[in-house]
User: Fold this.
Amino acid sequence: MVSVLRTVNTIESLRRHVCEWRAQDLRTAVVPTMGALHDGHLKLVEQGLRLADRVVVTLFVNPTQFAPHEDLDTYPRDERGDARKLKEIGAHLIFAPSALEMYPDGFATSVSVAGPAKAGLEDVHRPHFFDGVATVVAKLFIQAGCDYAVFGEKDYQQLKVVTRMAQDLDIPVTVIGVETVREPDGLAMSSRNAYLSPEERKTAPELYRALRSLANEIREGSEPAAAVARAEDRLTARGFKVDYVAARNAENLGELTSRNEPVRILAAARLGKTRLIDNISV
Assistant:
C-alpha cells in the first residue's frame, strides 16, 4: 500500500491534522518510536492500521531517557529511510519534532512513575529511564489525542509502565502491545543490533535460546529461582555480561508468589558494547 504521507514538525500541525480526522469521525492511532525503523516497528504500524483509519508515527530520539554516558549522540537515525518505509506501508502522518519543540526553554515538569517502573529490572540499571519515557509518552498522548497507542512487547517493562501511566493520569487512549518481532535466528529486532560486531551477532541469539530453555524448565515444574540461576550461568559462559534474568508476574512485574500466576521472563545482558533486552511468556 502506498498512501499520502505527510511530515510535520510542530505540535500545532500535529493537532490540526488529528482534529481534521476526528471531525470526519475517523479513528486514529499513534505509534511512538525513536526512528531507525526496522520490521519490528513496521509491525506496530500495521497493527495501528488494523485498529484505526489514520496512523501517526512519531520519530523522536528523546533526550530525557538517556543518561550522560549512554548513546544519545550516536543513536541510529535515518529519517529519510524511515519516511520511505512508512509511505510504503501506508502510514498517514510522521511527527518528527525537534528537542526544543518538545522541551522548550523553561520546561520544568516531568512525570514520576512507580508501580511496574520500580520492579527492580530496567529501573535498577537505568534509574533515569522510565521517568523520561513516561514524560515524553504522556506528552505525545496529549499532543496526538489518538484513540490507540501501539507499543512493542520487546520493551515489556516499558509497555507496562506507559499502560499504567495512561490509566493513572486518565489519558483517554487505549495502549496496545504487539508481540516481539524476531530475526530468523530468534534475536529480537532492535535498532541497537546495528552496534553488534559480526562475531557478536552470531552469539546474540543465545539470549533468546536461554530464555526459551528457562521458560520450558518453569513449565515443567522447576523452581523459578534455581532455573533463573542456570540461565544466568549459561549466558555468562557464552560471553554475556548479565544485568538481570527474572521470572515475574506478567501483569504487574512483581515477584512470583504462587504457581498459578501468569509468568513473564525478562532479561538484559551486554555483549561487547551492546546492551540487549528480551522477554518471553511462560
Observations:
- The domain at 191-281 is CATH 3.30.1300.10 (Pantoate--beta-alanine Ligase; Chain: A,domain 2).
- The chain has a mean pLDDT of 96.
